[in-house]
Specification:
This protein is an alpha/beta fold and 417 residues long. The chain has two domains: 8-181, Flavin prenyltransferase-like (Rossmann fold, 3-Layer(aba) Sandwich); 191-416, CoaB-like (Rossmann fold), CATH 3.40.50. It has 14 helices and 22 strands. It has helices at 21-31, 50-57, 71-82, 93-100, 107-114, 127-131, 133-144, 170-181, 216-227, 255-265, 293-297, 314-320, 340-350, 392-416; strands at residues 8-13, 35-40, 61-62, 85-91, 119-123, 148-149, 153-156, 162-166, 191-196, 201-202, 208-209, 231-236, 248-251, 271-274, 281-283, 308-310, 329-336, 355-360, 372-373, 375-379, 384-386, 390-391. The strands form six sheets. It has an eight-stranded mixed beta sheet with strand order 13-12-9-14-17-18-20-21, sandwiched between helices. β17, α13 (340-350) and β18 (355-360) form a beta-alpha-beta unit. α3 (71-82) crosses α5 (107-114), α4 (93-100) crosses α7 (133-144) and α9 crosses α14 (392-416). It is globular. The two termini are 34 Å apart. The mean pLDDT is 94.
Amino acid sequence: MSVLRGARIVVGVSGGIAAYKAADLVSKLTQAEALIDVVLTERARAFITPLTFGALSQRPVWSDLWEPTGEAAARHIELGQAAQLLLIAPATADVIARLAHGMADDMLTAIALATTAPLVIAPAMEHHMLAHPATQANLALLADRGAHIVPPDAGRLASGQIGAGRLPDTETLMGAARLMLGRQGPLAGKKVVVSAGGTQEPIDPVRYIGNRSSGRQGFAVAEAARDRGAQVTLVAGVTALPTPYGVTRIDVSTAAEMRDAVIDACADADALVMSAAVADFTPQQVAHHKIKKREVAGDGDADLVVPLRRTPDILGELNERARDFPRLVRVGFAAETRDTLAAAQEKLARKGLDLVVANDVSDPAGGFGSPMNHVWICHRDGHIMELPLLRKEDVADHIWEAAIPLIQAHDTQQSSL
């Protein structure tokens, strides 16, 4: 279940040119079934109207604390108390200064003082204003009080200059919202390692042995762990996917690099979800230069023969060294093209896993690169749960629903030792 679904979020919009981007943020949050109350500063209304946000959120939009009916003055307390998150995007230098110094001279800053909800601030302004010591001191003061600051992007600014100060894209802002909403979740205080994507085993500087893994399922698993409060390390093979917000990413290319990164990350981890498609074999030798067809064939038609050797068995090594990782819950994946369940159960037993997620990657509806997946979650006690064809994000939720009780049971066992 998405951490955004049903969440009460106050989105504050201040008066910068990036205010128009907040419309997309409110739209996407509403589509994710969050309940959004938009609050505009007086200057924000010069850039974008309340009507836009009212149409997108399908809820009243607030702006003037001093309107004559007195309703807004009363509502700022109610909105602050009901909010689970206060997200200000864009946050101008002026609003940041007023927040830092506890001013409450408009609807937005009054709500900020009235709420105990987490505060997310996304600064957006001209880069010299952002770099000014006063702005930096105000941001540092807010961060010291517990506010989460989303770093602005660098690029072309409205002034025509290049520098830091652009409002991050909607996905980044939503990632920050999910991070803060989930920080007290069932994985709070836990360290989780997720591997994702495929490896590439080089033959020469140009060619490699690889696979079709996109990494989408593993990235969804990492995001779902973050949304439940975990500190997540994502060991990513070769993939074009962007790093999920709030997740530590380690990029690798080969199976050997994947092994080293995963083993190191698991040293103090509570769980590993090994969803990467790691190559089982790698060339015994890598040519220093590109292999030429004519150099192989000569005057004849000889074929290129590439001797292969086994790559490290990461889950197998973790099983053999189980005493070194006493609290680690291990979840493996079995990507098969035949006898899927039998192969998954054999892998679960042979590698001493807690769970195996099995899927038939020959199915085009749920194979490599698809946004969907059809899996079976196999437990050590023999229980198997088949999931229908689902979005990979929903599959990730089910994986953690199965893994979290095992993590909690490991905690109980360790505390009794």
